[in-house]
Structure formats: C-alpha cells, structure tokens
Amino acid sequence: MEKTARLGLERVTRPRLYEQLVEQILAYIESAQLRPGDLLPAERDLAERLGVSRATLAQALVALEVLGVIDVQHGTGAVLARRPSVASVIKGLREHRSRLPEIVEARSTLEVKLAALAAARRTDEDLAAIDHALDVMSQEINDGDRGTHGDELFHQAITAAAHSGVLAQLMAFIAEMILETRMESLGQPGRPEQSLASHRTIADAIRAQDPEGAAEAMLAHIELVSDVELLR
C-alpha cells in the first residue's frame, strides 16, 4: 500500500451508480443516433430499460441537465442539447460534485446575512416581490414543475430586500454556480414542496422584522437544499 502511494497511484474506486447510469444513457444516445433537439424516451420507459427506479434515474438526468447535455422541458421531457464524449461528461460530473460543498459554504455565508438584513430593512415593495416569488413557485409546483424559476425569484427578492449593494454583487458573481445547486436540489423527490415551505418560513420572519429568526430560517433552508444525492 505504501509502495503504491510512493508511486503516485490512487486506489481505483467503483463508479457510483449515477455515474454508471450516465454512461448508459450516453451509450443509448449514441446507439440511437440521437441528435441535438431529439427527445429521449419517457422516464418510465428509460428506467425500465436500465433496470432502475425512476427516482434513481431522475438523479442521473438532473446531473446531465446541470452539465448542459440535456434540457428537461416540463410537459415534453428530456431533450438532447449536445452530444459530448463519455469521458468529458464524467469529468464534468466529478468536478461539479467537488464544487458543491464550496458553493454551499458561500451560500451559507452570504444568504444568511442577506436574510437578516432583509428582515431589518425590507419595504412594502420588497415584501410584495417576495410574495410574488412564492406565488410563482407554488404555481409551478402545482403544474407539476420543479419550481426553479420561483425559487430563483425568491432568492433574488431576498437579496434586493437586504439593500446591500456589495452583497448583491457577490451574489451575482456566484449566481451561475448557485444555479447548479438549485437544479440539483429541486430534482430531489419531494424537494420542491419542502423548499417552498422553507421559503415561507423565511418570508414570515422577514415580514415580522425578525433578523435572528430570518437568519436561522435561511440557514435551515440552505442545509435542507444542500442535501443532494450527488454528495451522499
């Protein structure tokens, strides 16, 4: 073992299930000669072909969506966006997984403070924007979608309600990375509903002008949405 370490070799690890699924989905795309714009089979059919549950398949599809390989459209299904090599996708998947903890760390630092400031500084217009975001997310979920747009609007409204230009700039800087975690989290079974309930708790604290309560609620929310299959 020590000799292996001295040679600079690493222990070979068994690919995780979602990595194996990603490879199989890409192999299917290749064998079926799908082109960008083509529709993948319905989740139920694809899960049966691969011999996995739909919930397990959904995690692999979310990973491919985060990497821009597919575009999951509500009411239509998974549409192929590009045809990358298997090696590049697995590399991107592992890089994405290694990035997630640092993105969560940044969110915990910035958004908890933003929630506290929002509770102290919010205006009636800010509350209206927060309520609008909640309504949008609720409607998306009721329509069978994941609520990603409403989720984005909610966090943007919290940032605006904090009235801190510098923190807003920092949030804008990591916005694209946060999008990765948003897609990953809301792809978890039952997560959209849990996330919406968590948003309402944050909004209630901000409405009550309770900075401590808003900070605690935001921290609990980030801990919730950071629990994703990719990091288990």
From TrEMBL:
Short name of one Pfam family: GntR
Domain HTH gntR-type: 15-83
PROSITE patterns on file: HTH_GNTR
This protein's encoding gene: exuR
Highest classification ranks of the organism: Bacteria, Bacillati, Actinomycetota, Actinomycetes, Micrococcales
Name of the molecule in the record: Bacterial regulatory s, gntR family protein
The organism's place on the tree of life at top rank: Bacteria
UniProt keyword annotation of Calcium present: no
Keywords: DNA-binding, Transcription, Transcription regulation
Gene Ontology molecular function: DNA binding; DNA-binding transcription factor activity
